[in-house]
UniProtKB/TrEMBL annotation:
Protein known as: Leucyl aminopeptidase family protein
InterPro entries from the UniProt entry: Leucine_aapep/pepB, Macro_dom-like, Peptidase_M17_C, Peptidase_M17_N_1
Homology family: Belongs to the peptidase M17 family.
Alphabetical list of Pfam families matching this protein: Peptidase_M17 (PF00883), Peptidase_M17_N_1 (PF21337)
GO molecular function, one term: aminopeptidase activity
Protein keywords: Aminopeptidase, Hydrolase, Manganese, Protease
Keyword field contains Hydrolase: yes
Residue ranges occupied by any Cytosol aminopeptidase domain in the UniProt entry: 314-321
Amino acid sequence: MAPCFAPVSDTAVYLSLMEQDQLQGWLQNQPASLQDWVTTNGFTAGCGQALLVPGIDGAAPFALAGYGTATQRRRQRFTLAAAAEKLPAGCYQLQTETPGLAQLDTETLSTECLGWLLSQYRFSRYKSTTPMTASLIAPATVDAAAIESLAAAEWLTRDLINTPAADMGPAELEAAVEALAAEFDASVGVITGADLLEANLPLIHTVGRAADQAPRLIDLHWGSSGPKLTLVGKGVCFDTGGLNLKPGASMGLMKKDMGGAANVLGLARMIMAAGLPIQLRVLIPAVENAVSGNAFRPGDVLPSRKGLTVEINNTDAEGRLVLADALTLADEGDPDLVISMATLTGAARVAVGPDLAPFYTDHDADAAALATQAAPQADPVWRMPFHAPYESMIEPGIADLDNAPAGGFAGSITAALFLRRFVGESRYMHFDIYGWTPNAAPARPKGGTGQGCRALFAALPDLLGL
């Protein structure tokens, strides 16, 4: 099922959006029976409250959604979605121009409508039934098709991350890319198994060679003119940690370690659906970091496509290895902008938590363009530094680079610096995302999630000069 607004219906329930400081003034002009109903049900118009009002004194049924106060809304995203999740299944039509009710500008209304569609997401692949949800008729002032496209991209990302590794290994991830390419008339090339060595992609091969499913490099192309944008997504479909085996508690969420790949595919879907005038390339090194007799070892020194050697001090720092070869390949295509996305380090989570998408760039104008779009898109990001004095931390004595510097300090920064070594002169932006919502929130159920993609999509005209 794709996310979509409901068709116009004569049976839709009218939904009124109520700010907290408007409630009493509005109630004073209502029949006493309606005042009693609202009061008895404890509706105060707080953020996310919802109340279905039956037909009173012959009036048609309608619903109220609490919009709280400006202070309350700053503490959560998608206020309307919070109410939508509490309404009974049915079709609702938002009242947007009624005096005495909350009045939203088009940008805010669009974001709230997006939140409603995102709140309808259910990962039901393994369930026998799918719960019904409340549907919304798109207000006339919003671009319904554009909002549905954003929601479809997010649903794709969530589905990919939420699918267990038994059903989302490198081969299944390849199939998902092929399906997306077929939808938008893109082309896909894949280099698999030992062919990776012939193609000079040794790090991708080494990390994935111990798994039953062969490692692969997935390469999608779309568009024939305009600026060149290359997206690189970490596709570690499951991460045991390799011979530096993760403890069980740390392994439980490792189906999400391909969250970078899922996110760049969501962003690619937005771009292709909008028909942006660019040349898009998506590179996904898809592997499973498994344990077997031929798994790579701590202490190994590995060659890379760029010619730099890497000492392995922890086989659980494998994501930066597969990205390194993919980034080198991306740089060789002379792109105008390279963006990598990866569930790369726990250090990033310690720094900013699960909700913010930390990103790195050397270009202040790019950071400003992204920051400008993040809040309107309800897609928060936070800039982190490519701190050059830490370069020495990733330089061991035995090889050119160290994949896991000792000491535990600045883990996200040193990982980003490691990746930057493989990009060359290309303009580069890196996202160290979590890709997971640990606790359900409005429009964001517990599970896989997109991070930074809507902000990036909105910023692309500035980033690429469109």
